[in-house]
Amino acid sequence: MIRGVHKVCGHNAFILEPYISSLQLSTHLTSAKTYSTAQKLPRLPVPKLDDTLSKYLKTAKPHLSNEEYDVTCNLAKDFATGLGQDLQSLLEKRAQQHTNWLEEWWLNTAYLEYRDPVVVYSSPGLVFPFRKFNSQLDQLQYAAKTLLAALDYKSLIDNDKIPTEMMGKNPLDMQQYKKIFGTCRIPGLKRDSLSYNTTSKHVTIIHNNHIFHVDLWGDDGKVLNEDQIVQQLEKVIEMSEAPSQDGIGILTSENRNAWAKAYDVLIKDNQNKESLKDVQSSLVVLCLDKPVGLWKAADKNGRQNIAGAQTIHGGGAGLNGGNRWFDKTVQFIVGADGVTGLTYEHSPAEGQPIAVLTDFLINFIDQNKAAGRPASSSPKLPQLLKFNVNSEVAGMINTAKSSLDKLVNNLELNCFTYEKYGKNFIKSQKLSPDSYLQMAMQYAFYRLHKTPGAHYESAATRMFIGGRTETIRSCSIESVEFANAMLDSKRSPKDKKAAMQSAINAHKNYTVMALQGLGVDRHLLGLKLIALENGIDIHKLYSDPGYVRSAHMRLSTSQVACKCDGFMCYGPLVSNGYATCYNPRDNDVNFATSAFNDNPETSCDKYRGALEQSLQDMHDVLLLSTQAKL
Questions:
Q1: For 111, which DSSP code?
Q2: 3-state secondary structure (DSSP) of residue 196
Q3: CA-based nearest residue to 323, from 391, 240, 388
Q4: Topology of domain 36-110+413-629, per CATH?
Q5: pTM given for the model
């Protein structure tokens, strides 16, 4: 179940809920009230056991026959009146002893103890608007602006100038902003760890699989200006003209235990140990990538797929997959032919700080805010980090290349822009854009597979101290009824609209509960973990089809709402599932879908077709209902 635990948090923790606008946050950085490092926020509640089990039964029902549902109800009743009460008491006791009863458990079980690669299985890629670089100088100037924008953003964080985000009247926990720069995941057998280095003065630059230390401050304590950073990057390229055949960055794409074993071998050598520390302590990683044929693609859809692949996994060992350090929290990508974006290892934080960074960075570059900055004196030359690779590590590198290529070949992507309408139309119908799009995905899955799909969306619980996420279970009795209504040619547009509104309202209601820490999944996880911690046998509820099927999230979804023409992408949660990340804009929606090629049940192309048809059907039903009123 640990795999399932992680997968229900994984990349979807990058969500920006419909209630929080990253654009508003990023464009009002100087005028909003800023947060204090000593926020006084309430503790994450322990929901009432009966309330959680009641919600659980409702979300499990779409996945069960009547006979199976009766069994699940009896198990829930037995749990509620017996073992569940004991576990609830233990969990409530834990909540009194911790500022957040879930925080440490969540970090360990959902992230640091998760053993599959962070690539595809966990870390998302975020694609920025495409750029056309006519020369290498264009690429390096863009890269220099990216680094300067990141430094300006970090300065706002360090000086507590990021505005306190609000959900209604409730301030949100801002601690995660402090954890994105200078942070690195370090592999360990059974459990990884995190290294924090917020006062670092250098970045890691990777080119042709060679890894460099580059200082961004001169001897006089001033930040280098754009021209000086470009000169540093030119020097990096000059020192790494030929690709490294034993670049160790690709090891970070491996299974975590395999990487941990390689790491233990590497650090026995003092030079390796120092080079690894240098990468871990840098503020960010910047990957200067080789071209991938971006502008040779036939259309925008083709370019989106190429860029999405580059930010998720780098295209494999033969392209840019080794030109990475996937353990770094923030890893910027600037490709020679205009692929720009970042890869995000998000065990220390959710995606909100990264999404605000994205808007800030794009605005910074487009407004050319790097221009005219004074030069620093005596910038130090880049340092090539050296690694002594023995035959054992060389073998591990070759294995990592093979493993990454298998992952790359197995991930099917279909990233596209739905251009017929966006959130303006949905709002004109007085409907929530996020809930509307969630129901479009439910409908698409049902029409394609003729069965309800357990469906994950993340809700931030940051109104509580140390809050991370709760699951929104988007598949509901109402969503199934909506899908059935839409597929029934005998049902009137009025009936279909009513079913749509009911499904959307059910999703909105669950979202509100999840944001308040009152969902199903985290509470049931807590009860299971407190049992394990106390040597108590796990109740049969957790092996029942109701629990197993409703937690087997065949749809893994997240909204990343940025105004720029960008999108986020990642891999599915389960072998027979789909990932769907979406950026709803005024008049269009960017989607990034993925599935696994080796699973015969799924197809991104078919899913995209079903999703586009579902969006069209919903649009038509709303218009026909309006005409019927007239």
A1: I
A2: strand
A3: 240
A4: Chloramphenicol Acetyltransferase (3.30.559)
A5: 0.93
